[in-house]
Amino acid sequence: MSDYIAIIHKDAGSDFDVAFPDFPGCVSAGRTLNEARAMAEEALALHVEGMREQGLALPPPSSREAVMGDRRHREGVAIRVAAPRDEPA
């Protein structure tokens, strides 16, 4: 099982936004930080499931340092989210 970095960001007056740098387009949100974390797990699970159904390989996880080295992510908080295990056929 691999852990991927999610970036949680919050603007004033908005929900907590979640994005996965290793999976462009895999995003979610939550009203609270705990809800955002839970929604991040669900979003990643659905995204990975879709990739596997299409026969696509998952990218290798980026390091926290690499993700946070990108200035676009510096105002967010990095969390680790476990990718679901590949179920045997």
From TrEMBL:
Residues 4-79 form the HicB-like antitoxin of toxin-antitoxin system domain. Gene3D superfamilies: 3.30.160.250. It holds the Pfam family HicB_lk_antitox. It comes from the Bacteria. This is Putative RNase H-like HicB family nuclease.
